[in-house]
Amino acid sequence: MAEAARSQHSPIPPIYRHFFLYVEPLASLVGAYYALCNPHEYLRLTDPSIAYSKHLPLSTSIILMQLSNLYFLFTINEALVLRATSDINVWRTLLLCLLIADVGHLYSVHPLGFQVYWNLLSWNAIDWGNVGFVYMGATTRICFLAGLGLQGSPSKRRTKRRMKKS
Q1: What is the rounded CA–CA span in Å between residue 15 and residue 21?
Q2: d(CA 4, CA 10)
Q3: What is the pTM for the complete model shown?
Q4: pLDDT at 8 (0 to 100)
Q5: For 37-132, where are the E strands, in sequence order?
């Protein structure tokens, strides 16, 4: 009830609240789960050309646990930090940081070849997460940072100025 009342008075439009407070944290949690609890499948989907043994090297297991932890950090940053405030500056700051992380995440898959960025028909489940979903998240962040749909956004201020001049 309190969250519903808070969301009615929030300067953050519902589409952004829904995506950043629910959809993306849940998707990140799925990534954390696969990296931690199903590492063989995570690796197989990442690079199907490599056959992985039953026992992963210790270094690979550690790296996957660290990756899972970072996915979890991503989850709690959005789900908890953004939920705790409707301060537009906090949202902008966190979303800018996550947009920078999106660029790094997209860069990290470049060893698979540049077709991974555009050949949707060849994507498997992890490609949809590592590329497709990151495209969606980055696009949503760019729209938010550009003020699209926000009260008092630069585009709305320009429109108001033009209307006053007329």
Answers
A1: 10
A2: 10
A3: 0.83
A4: 58
A5: none
